[in-house]
Amino acid sequence: MTHEPNWLLDWYWNDVSGKNVSHLICDYLKGRCKLRMSGDLHHYMRHSFVKSDGLGPVHVQHLLVNGCGGAFLHPTHVFASFNKLYGTPYDCKAAYPSFEDSSRIALGNILKFRKKNWQFDFIGGIIYFLLAFSMFPQCKLGHILQDDSFSGHLGSFFGTVWNAFIYLLERSYVSFVGALMLLIAAITFVPSKVSRKKRVMIGIIHVSAHLSAALVLMLLLELGVETCIRHNLLATSGYHTLYQWYQTVESEHFPDPTGLRARIEQWTFGLYPACIKYLMSAFDVPEVMAVTRSNICKNGMASLSRGGAVIYYASVFLYFWVFSTPIVSLVFGSYLYICINWLHIHFDEAFSSLRIANYKSFTRFHITKDGDLEVYTLAVDKVPKEWKLDPDWDREPKLPQQQSHSRRFPSKWSAAVPLQDPIHTVKIVDHFVIKQTDDSSTTASNGSIAH
C-alpha cells in the first residue's frame, strides 16, 4: 500500500518514481505481491493482469486505487489507456465513475464553472478590461450602423474587431503588455507533460479566445453607447443631465416662493446644490461615459485631464466588467473541457474546479474459510447534503463492547431525505477474489475474478 498510485501517475506524467517500492516488489517479493493499493487520486480504478502465452513473471496481480473519500472527484477516462506495468499487460476491470460518466461530468466546466468559482469573476473581469483598455473609445462606428444588410453589419463589425487587434499589436501599450503577460501565464499553465511546441500552441489558442472575446465585448459596449447618443438618449446636455431633470421636477412639484433654497445655498457656501449635483453625476455612469466619450472623439484624448481620464475609464470599467465576467468564465471553462476530454491534460484543475462531493466509495476485505481474500468496493453516487440525528439509533439498546457494524442502526446520523440515505443507495461497484497460494509459489496466478 502506498500513498500515490505510481503506476498511473508515472504513466500519465511519463515519469519514474517509487524506485524503492519497485525494487521491493520485483527483486524481493518476486510475484508474492497479489494486490497493490493506493489513494490520492479521488476515484476508483482496478487493473488486473492479462494472461497470455509467453508471459514473463507477474510481479503484481491487481492494481487498485481508491481515493473516493477525497474532497472532490478526479476523472477516470484520462487514465483509460494505461495497460502495462513492469512489462506485464493489464486491463481495467472496474472504474468508478465509469469512463462515460467521467467524460460527461467534465461538461460541467462549460455549464457550471462560473457558479462554482464565482470568485474568478473579479480577476477575470480585470484581465479582460486590461486587454481592451487601449481600444477605448471607438469613435468611428458609423460604417457598422449604416450598412443595410445583416451580412454587411456583420462584416463591418468583425472588420472593426480586426482593426482593433492590429492597433493593439502596433500602437497600444497597456493592452499589449496585458496580452503578453496573459500569453506567458497561459503557456506556463499548460502541464509540463506536453511538449514545448504544443504548450506554446495551446497557450496561443487559449489567449486568442480570450482576446477575441474581450475585443468583441469592447465593440459591443461602444456600439451600445454610440446608438444611445445617436438617438439622443445620452450626451444631450453635459455631465449633469440627471441633476437638471431633478431641478425641473423640484421646481414643478416643490415651488419655493420664499427663496429658501437660495438661502440654504448661501448658508452652506454652495455645498447644498453641489453635493446633490455631483452625487447624481456619480450615479449617472452612462451619461458620464457618453459625454466624456463624445469629448474625446471631438477634441482627442489630449484634451482630457488626468482626473477626467480616471473618471472615464472607471465608468467604462464598471459596465465592461459586468459584461465580461460571464464570458471569461465561459471561455476558461470551455478551455478546461477541451483539455480534459480531448487532450487529456489539466485533469486536476478541470475536476477540482467543479467541487464534486458525490461519487464516494470505500473498499472492504474479507478472508474466507479457504483463506481466499475477497475484495468489495461499495459506492454511493449521490451524497446527501443535509443530515439529521437518527432517533432509532438512540432507542436501540447498546451492549458493552458491541461493535457498531453489528447493530441494527449502526450510524447516529441519517439523511434528512430518506430516499437519499446511503443505506438505500449504496451499491457494489467491484468485487474480486484473490486465491490463496502456497508459500513456496513464486509465480503469481490470476485467481478467480468475479464481477
UniProtKB/TrEMBL annotation:
It comes from the Eukaryota. Keywords: Membrane, Transmembrane, Transmembrane helix. The chain crosses the membrane at residues 120-138, 150-169, 176-194, 200-221, 310-338. This is Uncharacterized protein. It comes from Cannabis sativa (Hemp).
